[in-house]
Amino acid sequence: MNRSGKIYSTDFNRRQMMMRIEPRELSYKAFPASEATAAGMKVLPMNPDAVYCTVLHNHTYCERGGRPLHMHLILPSQHERPDATWPLLVFVQGSAWRQQHLDANLAPLSWISRQGYAVAIVEYRPSDLAPFPAQIQDAKTAIRYLRKNAGQFNIDPEQIVIWGDSSGGHTAVMTGITPHDKELDTDVYDGLSCEVKGIIDYYGPADITRMNEAHSTMDHAGADSPEGLLIGGLNVLENPVQAEPTIIMNHISQEVDIPPILMIHGNKDRLVPFEQSVLLYNDLKQKGKDVEFYKIEGADHGGPDFWSDEVLGIIQAFITRL
């Protein structure tokens, strides 16, 4: 009898002891499926091909000038293939080369990851702390770090594509086409390659000296403009020596192979003129490079138009053919 006056049945206690199953360490395969049922219960089959993603926030990949640099990792997994390796998309978030918000495209990139890709959203040093080529150096360092730790993240180190939007698009293209340019690199994780299989450019600048030749809602030439800060707080048009290394076309030649490039840009972009992508595309075609170019009619600088099912299908098709 307990304090409330209730009497517990010794038969009940004995039965509970007899029914108790001691916990055991079992593999998923060895663990028995429950046969319990309930009236009205509905049954769904397990999908062995379903992909589940987890996010590793603010993972440090290196330190530059006393500043830790981070990445967000979106890592897929499958119940039936816990040790599977996944192609990697390295995404460089645009920010006018200033401080990035790495979460800005986390939601749509998570959708991409569920299609069977690991995604690394990479931080670069902002231009007010480190001008060009710091951003290219950091992206290359991140790629080498991911190759070095491919086993830890279940990444296929031979299947890496770099992708970026706006200033991140500029960084992605420059990173992808200059893997052997030591002036645009560091020796961090030396001995590992920063090469990629393909490049995706969402509305990135191509030639900062020509951005004010088209309609825009902002100045692109002044010392305090994004482009001016990129070259150290200088007027772009008055400092061609500093501006020329940032121009993508100056790093492309007919003789040197570069990865295939996919370009997507809206023709009502108020920040990075659509003409920038036209300049780059024409140069790539003239030099015999593998490039696809899509204009999104009426699209502004980013937004939902670039994450529609149709556009994401184009992205997947491009990656699949590499």
TrEMBL record:
GO MF annotations, alphabetized: hydrolase activity
Domain BD-FAE-like: 74-284
InterPro entries: AB_hydrolase_fold (IPR029058), BD-FAE-like_dom (IPR049492), GDXG_lipolytic_enzyme (IPR050300)
SUPFAM superfamilies in the record: alpha/beta-Hydrolases
This protein's UniProt keywords: Hydrolase
Entry protein name: Alpha/beta hydrolase fold domain-containing protein
